[in-house]
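Our collaborator T.R. sent over the components below with a one-line note: 'Predict the complex.' Nothing else. No constraints on interfaces, no templates requested, no preferences about which chain binds where. So this is a plain run: every listed entity goes in together, and whatever single assembly comes back becomes the starting point for the next discussion.
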Amino acid sequence: MPHPKSDILQGTLDLMVLKTLDALGPLHGYGIARRIEQISEEALQINQGTIYASLVRLLQKRWIAGAWGTSDNNRKAKFYSLTKAGRKQLEAQAENWERISGVIGRVLELAARR
Amino acid sequence: MWNRLRVLYSRIGGLFSGRRPAQEFERELESHLAMLIEENLRRGMPPAEAERAARIRLGGLTQLKETNRELRGLPFIETFLQDARYAWRMLRKNPGFTAVAVLTLALGIGANTAIFSVVYAVLLKPLPYAHPEQLVTAFQANTQEGVPEDGVSYPNFEEWRAQNHVFSELAGITAHQLTLTGRGEPSVVDTSVVTPEHFALLDVKPLHGRVFFPAEGKQGAPPVVIISENLWRGTLGADPRILGSSIILDKRPFTVVGIMPAGFRSPFIETKQEVWIPLVQDPLFGSWMARRAGHWLPVFGRLKPGVSIAQAQAEMDAISDRLAREFPAENKGWTVRLVPLQKEIVGDVRTALLVLLGAVGLVLLIACANIANLLLTRATSRSKEIAVRTALGAGRARIIRQLLSETAVLGLLGGIIGIALAYAGVQVLGSLMPENLPRLNPIRVDNFVLAFALVLSAIASVAFGLVPAIFSANSNIQGSLRDGGGRSGESLNRRRARSFLAAAEISLAMVLLVAAGLLLRSFSKLTSVSPGFETHSIVKAEVSLPQFQYSTPPQWIAFSDKLLAQVQAQPGMQDTAVAVPLPIVNGKINLGFDIVGAPPASAAESRLADYASVSPEYLRVMGIPLLAGRFFNQQDILSAPRVSVISKTFAQRYFPNQDPIGKRLNFGFPPNPDVEREIVGIVGDVRDVSLGEAPGPMMYVPFAQVPFWGANLVVKSTLSTSAVAAAIRQEVQNIDRDLPVTDVAKLPDLIDASVSQQRFRTFLLGLFAAMALILAATGIFGVIAYSVACRTNEIGIRLALGASRSAILRMILRETLLLTLAGLLVGIPCALAASHFVGHLLFGVSANDPVTLAAVAFTLAAVAAFAGFLPARRAMRVDPVIALRHE
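Returned assembly:
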C-alpha cells in the first residue's frame, strides 16, 4: 500500500487537478502538472509523477474521464477531461475549501492577535 | 458512499484486467517524459542533461508504476492471488499428495454438507408457514393413566376455542382415507380432515378458488372439498372447470371449492394429503363430533402476538380444570399440554440427526488431522525452501501467509469437490431416507447449506493449515540450510506433533466406531426379536367400504364374510383372515376397560389395553399360539353373546393367580364403549406397536361382533405376492366393481419398513465409522512410513552393527503400537462419554456395552498394527550398504 501523506494533501491535489481541467479543458498529465506548477508560481515543488496517483483516484470516482489523443506537437498522450459528476464535485469541494480556509484563516488571525 | 463503492468496483475490475493497464500507464509516462525532455531542450539544455533533469522532475519510474498498480487493484488480494497461483503450481507438482489431501477433504466436506442439509431442513429451517414460532400443538395428557399425549374430543375443542384468550386461532386436524370414484379407476385418496379454521390459522392461500368458510364446519352444511394441485393435475387431468363441480368421495358428491398448491402440506399428517374436507363431512370422525368422551382430534393453534407459551399453558390449565369440574366423567385427570409445533413434529428424530451430524463432524476432524499430518511431512521436506525464503527477507507472517494460501487452495478445491459430492449425497440420502422422517421442508443443498459448506471448508483449511504453517515458519534457518537433504533434519517438535495427530485420529475413530458398533448391535438385536407372530409368506391388503353405501355393521360383516370365503376358495390360499388393526403395520388402538365385579381401578393402576377386531382364522394365519381356552369361531356372531380373548400379559397383569377364563370385561370401540364381554381364551403376546417396544396387554374381539367399515385382509399362501394380490383384486371386484384394493404388501417387507429409521441411521453411522477407520489407518501409515524413511540411515547403522531384522521389525511395530495405545487410552473414556448421546437410540444394548468397546479397541489395534506393519516390513528389508550411502 502507498503511504498517503495526509488526506488533506491528497484532497488538495485532487482539487487542483479538477480545477485545472475545469479551467483549461481536456489536458494530458504533463500539461496538468505544468499548469499546477505555474499557478503555484513554483511554490509547490512536487514530482510531476505524483499527479498520476491523483488522476487514478479521480478516474475511479468517475469525476474525470481519460482518452488517448494527440498533443499540440503531434505526440500521443492521454487526455483527461472533467465529467459532469466531476464538475459538480468541483463546485462542492471548492465551496467547502473556501469555507474551511476561511475558518482556518480566522482562527490563525485570532491566534495572532493574542 | 457511492464514491467508495465506485472505487471498490473499479479496483475489483483492476484485479482482472491483466497487464494492459500497466502497459498503458507506461506509455503515458513515456509520453510525459518526452514532453519534459522537449521542454528542457527548448530551454537549451544538452540532450543528456535534458533527459536526466526530466527524469528527476517526473520521479522514479518504477515507484510510480508500483504506486499506480497498487491504486488500480486491491494489493491484499493480489498478493493472495499470487500466492494462490504459486500454491497451485506446487500442488500440481505433487499430484499424489494433492489428490489424497483434496479427496480426503472432499469426502469430509461432502458428508458434512449432505447431513447438514437434512439437519437444516428438518431441525433448523423454520416450518414453511407464516410466523411459525407462534404455532403450537395442544394435546391432552393424563399422567394418572400414563398417557403423555392424546387428541381431544370435539366438544372439548369447542370449549377451548370459545374460552381461551391466548390463541388467535385453534384448529383440529386428522387424517382418513376415502374412496374416489367416477374418475377412471376407483382409487383411495389420502384425506386430511380439518376444522375450517385450519387454513386461516396456517395463513395459506389456495392456488385457485377459496378455503373453507367457518359455516362449512357446522352440521348440515353442504359437503365441500379442497383438492391438492397434484390430484388436480394427475387423477383429475387438470380439469379447468373443476372449481364448482363435484367429485365423488365414498359415494357422496363433494363440491370442489379450492385447489391448494403442490408445495403445501398440513402439519402432522404423514400421508400424501390429496384432499381436505371439513371434519363434519367425514363419515367416521363426523359421527364422533357430538361425544365429549374420547381423545381423537389432534389440535394446534396460533398464539396471539406477544403471548408466550407459558402464558398460554397457564390459561389452558385453567380451562381444563374448569372442564374437569364441569364434566368429571369425561375430563377428570386430563390436562392440556402445549408444545411448539416444530418441536412436536421433529420429535425424537432430533437426537438421531444430531448424532449423525456429530459423527460426520468427527470424520471431518479426522480428515483434517490427516491432511495436517501430510502437510507437516511435506513441510519438513520443504524446510529448505522456507529457509531460503526467510534468508531472502520474508518475514514470519509472510511465510505463514504463503503456506496458508496453499492450504486455502487445497481447502477450496476440497470444498468444491465436496459440494459436488454433497449434491450426489443428498440424492442418495433422499432415496434411502425413511418415508416417515418428518419433512415439511424439502431436503436439498440450498444457499444456506452451500454457505455452511464454504464456511466449513474455510475453517477446515485453517485448521489443518495453521499448525504446519507455524511449525515451518519457526524452523531454524541455519540448520535447514546447512542440512543436505532436509530429511534427517526433522525437528523433535514436529515429529511429536505428527505422532500427536495420529494418536488423536485413533481416539476420534474410536469414538465413532463405538457409537456405530452400539447401533449395529442394537439393530441386529432389534431385527432378530420375535414380534410374537409369523410373517413368512403372509400378504396383506386393505379394503375400505364407502360408508354411504355400506352404512350398517351387518353390511360390513356380510362383505367380509363373502370376501373371505371367495379368496379362501382360490387355489394356493392356506388361510385367510381380516384384522383391524394389524400389529406393527397399523400400530395400536388403545382402549380403557373395566373388569366386571372387580373394585374400580386405583389411581396407580391404569386399565388400558390394546385392542384388535379379528376373524376366527386370524390366529392360524399369524401363527399366534393359543395358551388357554378357545379362540373365536363361526358361532361368535352379532346375535350370540359377546366374547373376548386376552393376551398372556393381560392375564398376568390383571388376573394374577386367577383363571381369567369366564371373567367378564367391559369395553368397546366408540361409539359403543360399554359392552360386557366374556373372556373365552388366552393367546400369546404380540409386539403390536413396534419391534422395539415390549408387548403390552391386548384384548381381541371377533370381527363378526365388532365389525368395521374397512379391514386388512391377511392371507397365508404359497403363491407369490403378485399372484395373491391379483386374486384378492379379482374377488373384490367380483363383489363390488367400485372398491379399490390398497396397500398390498408382504408382511416381512412391512416389518422391515417399520425399522427403516433405525436402519437408516445405523447404515449412515456405520459408513462414517468406516471412513474414520480408513482415515485413521492412513494417518498411522503415513506417520510410520515417514518415520521409517527418516530413519533409514539409523536402521542401516543398526543392521550394520548386527541388529537382527526381526529386532528392527519389532522396533517399528513398537512405535506403531505406542501410538495406537495412546490413542486408545484417550479414546476409551471419550467413547464412553459420547456413547451416552446414542444411549436412547439403543435397543437391548447398554451404552457402555463392554463387548462393543472391546471389539472396537481390538479392531482399531489390529488395523493400526497392519497400517504400521507395511512400513515396518520395508524397514526390515533396508540394505545397510545402500542406507549408509543414503545421505
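Summary for T.R.: Residues 19 and 90 of chain A are 7 Å apart (CA to CA).
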